[in-house]
Specification:
Order of helices and strands: HEEEEHEHHEHEEHH
Mean pLDDT: 96
Strand order of the largest sheet: 4-3-2-1-5-8-7-6
Largest sheet: 8 strands, mixed
Radius of gyration: 17 Å
Bound molecules: zinc ion
Strand content: 5-15%
Helix content: 25-40%
Structural class: alpha+beta
Low-confidence stretches: none
Number of helices: 7
Distance between the termini: 37 Å
Number of strands: 8
């Protein structure tokens, strides 16, 4: 089986798995993979991640120009911003996952690091999570704001919208966005309670070990 065929099947499998577990809904969310020749596969516009067809994914050439498949998503630029700044990125996942979106709407979070280091796995898989200010859908300023952060962060949270997460592979991007969503859920569960996150020293030691900003 070719690399592209495998990637097409993997995108559909991961999309269905996330959809079935309620991590995305309706036609929200999108997944992309960068192939070794530099071309891209991405979930199309208006597609439910729960019912993707491997043969209908949108493909783009290495310059991000539409090549084939169903019409591309209007959110493709979020993915290309990540790939453009992160040479190691092999996949990007963007979701409107409920708890992550809820955290992106809170008034009192630190925009440079939205979630505290509640667990070691959050620090190892996500690192520091910056909040990208709100821009209306399609605003070119959103691409600029994501691009400005993507060099230092493989995961960002769009205010009043949701997370965009890159990974060296599709599995790594999936695991990171799921860790982010679960940590957002924990954070919301614990908001009324005094908490004891990892200390700054404990979190820094993990970030150094895993080369995270
Ligand atoms: Zn979105």
């Amino acid at each position: 089986m070719s690399e592209e065929t495998k990637a097409r099947e993997a995108i559909c499998r991961v999309g269905a798995s996330m959809f079935q577990r309620g991590l995305t809904f309706g036609s929200t969310g999108n997944i992309s993979v960068r192939l070794t020749d530099g071309a891209y596969l991405m979930t199309p516009t208006n597609a439910s991640l729960g019912e993707l067809d491997p043969g209908r994914l949108t493909s783009y050439d290495a310059q991000g120009r539409y090549r084939a498949g169903d019409p591309g998503t209007k959110e493709a630029f979020l993915h290309f911003c990540m790939y453009g700044r992160r040479r190691d990125a092999g996949a990007v996942v963007h979701l409107h996952a409920t708890h992550s979106v809820a955290v992106s709407i809170l008034a009192d979070v630190d925009p440079e690091d939205v979630l505290p280091p509640l667990t070691a796995y959050f620090v190892m898989r996500v690192g520091r999570l910056p909040l990208v200010p709100y821009f209306p859908p399609g605003d070119a300023a959103l691409a600029e704001a994501v691009g400005a952060l993507a060099g230092r962060h493989h995961a960002v949270l769009l205010a009043n919208h949701g997370p965009v997460v890159a990974g060296s592979s599709l599995a790594n991007a999936q695991f990171a966005v799921e860790e982010l969503e679960e940590t957002a859920k924990l954070f919301l569960m614990l908001r009324a309670t005094p908490i004891r996150p990892l200390t700054p020293e404990q979190a820094d030691a993990l970030r150094r070990q895993y080369n995270l900003y």
